[in-house]
Design a protein that fits this description.
12 strands
Length: 151
């Protein structure tokens, strides 16, 4: 497999960011890596994991990284670690006229829970089947309670 070819997985972009992705060969049960490409205006939704740490390596372009402490533009060759929980929250946007290409590697846990604060969603997924007989993949809509102390 070559990270510079334009062969992409036929995956459902459920979050609507418009990016392309491909699982890299050699990804195993404990360690996974995927190649991503964002065209101008495309993005990866702001999110954080409860089970999987991630490491991002920028290969091409200048993506804008959104993190808990604000935003900054990354450059080719830059490496960023995303720890578990809210402190590892991240999203990427391509605000340039050129393609952005990057690799994300991380541990692969199953089940996994991922939170998407901007979408007000939490997902639960696993590599095992659910009670429906299909792979577990659920999206929970987070409702804001006006009476909650967190509102």
């Amino acid at each position: 497999m070559n990270i510079w070819t334009d062969e992409w997985d036929a995956t459902d972009d459920w979050s609507g960011g418009g990016g392309k992705s491909r699982r890299l060969v050699g990804s195993g049960p404990q360690l996974g890596a995927s190649l991503y490409e964002l065209g101008p205006g495309n993005f990866v939704v702001y999110h954080f994991h409860h089970g999987s740490e991630e490491l991002l390596v920028v290969l091409r372009g200048r993506p804008t990284l959104q993190g808990p402490e604000g935003e900054r533009q990354l450059v080719a060759g830059e490496v960023v670690h995303f720890p578990l929980g809210p402190e590892g929250a991240h999203g990427l946007r391509n605000e340039t006229d050129e393609l952005v290409r990057f690799v994300v590697a991380g541990i692969r846990v199953s089940p996994e829970v991922v939170e998407y604060p901007d979408l007000k969603q939490i997902t639960a997924q696993a590599r095992t089947d659910s009670q429906t007989g299909e792979r577990l993949w659920m999206i929970h809509e987070v409702e804001t309670d006006p009476h909650s102390s967190n509102a």
